Amino acid sequence: MLLPAGSTGSRSSNGPVRRIPVGWEGFPPAASPWGRALGGKGSGRPRKHWTTREDAERQDALIRSYLEEIAQSGVSPRTLVAYRKDLESFRLFLRSRGKGDPTGGDVDRSLALSYLFDLEQREYRPRSVLRILSSLRSYYHWLCTKGLTATNPFEDLSGPRLPRTVPAILSERDMAALLARVPSGEGWAERRDRAILELFYLTGIRLSEMAHLLRSDLANASGRIRVRGKGNRERMVPLVGQAKETLLRFLEGPGGPPGDPLFPQAPGGAPLSVHQIGRIVRKHVREAGLGDRGVTPHTFRHSCATHLLDHGMDLRKIQELLGHRSLGTTQKYTHVGLAELRRKYDRIRQESPDHDDPNG
């Protein structure tokens, strides 16, 4: 039996499984913030439509053309994968709502609000909803510039608010203890893992940046390493002290071609993926007794920035080191430093026998 794409199964009391397309019943309800934006009414039960092969091929062609065009502007491969995933997800939603043409006039603000509600019902995290909203807003802006649609239904929509969070960090003492527990033996894998962890902490680079490093990115003479960040923007990051020594020790012996990955799975092999690097980090975090602290590769980046700030490095220099486009992104580490300062102050006062002396 032919069924609408995006349908779900439901078993009636009488027997066989019946198929109910996702979100067909009074959608979204007035209780939702996006339902209220629709005037307190659901968008109603859509008519049953079957998207045609021509519709599917046209959507494929549009998405492919869009991704090819933004790829030429320097968008990273990882971002392209995320964009494709977001667009395909919306495409499935359109099919479940009987909309085969993403450029049709019935893909309006009301339908866009319905999709945001659908994401909320499926318990998407607020940050994921914001990313999807950004992807769709950019895609429909592109469709408008190509004259393929008259309006951008996502243009004026705002997503959920993110809670203000302070980045998780490790203290300098905990970080030193963690690195001290990483074996520094003669084994190739041991030297590789130690180089990865020290490079994370002493340069503050991102997980995706670590995974894409090549042997040719290491400039031995200048003691710097070339890093390709978000949007394929390159920056040169200094290798200081122990990080440089550990990395050069790892690279001792016969070297591979310049285009080989800096951190392969095995000598001369394929590069470690972001997931494999994450597992390496978690393994050593557990062995250092910090497994309950929620430490991730990004914790090393946060800790690096905070410790540099604590030691008096200029905020602009930290911005350059981390590859932040906006100084505002870097400024969040000032809040981390102040919070840690308050904790230290409170601890000292509590430990002092005369901390409550009014004459003190």
From TrEMBL:
It holds the Pfam family Phage_int_SAM_1. Keywords: Chromosome partition, DNA integration, DNA recombination, DNA-binding. Transmembrane segments: none annotated. Residues 165-346 form the Tyr recombinase domain. Gene3D superfamilies: 1.10.150.130, Intergrase catalytic core (1.10.443.10). Residues 1-54 are annotated as: Disordered. Residues 57-144 form the Core-binding (CB) domain. GO terms for molecular function: DNA binding. InterPro entries: CB, DNA_brk_join_enz, Integrase-like_cat_sf, Integrase_catalytic, Integrase_recombinase_N, Integrase_SAM-like_N, Tyrosine_recombinase_XerCD. GO terms for biological process: chromosome segregation; DNA integration; DNA recombination. PANTHER family: PHAGE INTEGRASE-RELATED (PTHR30349), TYROSINE RECOMBINASE XERC (PTHR30349:SF81). This is Site-specific tyrosine recombinase XerD.
